[in-house]
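Researcher: Next entry in the queue.
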Amino acid sequence: MMWLLAATVTSSALAQENNDFSNWRVGLNLANLIQKESAPTIVLDYNFTTNNHARLQLGYWTTSGNRSTDLTNSSTITNGAQADTQINNSPYSSASLITKLAYYRTSDMGDKLNIYYGADLILLQDCKKNEINMEVTRAFSQQQRQTVITNEKTEATTLSYGLAPVFGIQWAFSPRFLITCEAGFEVLNNQFEEKVDRRITTTSSFDPRIFNDQVTGTKSWNQVTSNFNPLTCFILSYRLR
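Model: Structure for this entry, 241 residues:
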């Protein structure tokens, strides 16, 4: 009798705890980190009706540096002449923003296992800036030397948007924690723009003339790409109260 009473109380407590669970989950998508592409993205998942989910992913990462500190002066052989290369202040940076909005529907495969299918709407933004200030001096002999100074700035931006059908599996290893593995086929329209400002100055000890070459301009183009990714998502998520 006491055992039956204890079992009843325990079942009621578990039911009450499950009823306290929210339809919201928060988590991290570690797929980019596993594939060594970028940082994890933040995931917000909402179960708005039975077996129907909406999911938002947001991610932002940036890198920067300076080639004058990344690289040391080097000596190479160029056209049979000894060349000394000096890298001066040459900063670079990149920033990426990823936004994904998904709808998917789950199907129970047991108490802890689900499979699901759906689609992602994808928006990707990427910007890269590079500056190179380099001086190359070639010694043809003790008296004959040539110096080439290159100053170049480039800025490349990419805007990508598209759709990705997805298929995945979910494992609830505890009432609150869930692991999601997902594959998808991405179809993206990519809009590229590249700006270039390049100046090259050549002087030599055996020619009094100074040669200046300059290239400036902007190039824009579109490209549609498709790609199957066997691991678009590896999400560890937590169900809120």
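Model: The chain has one domain: 22-239.
Researcher: Noted, moving on.
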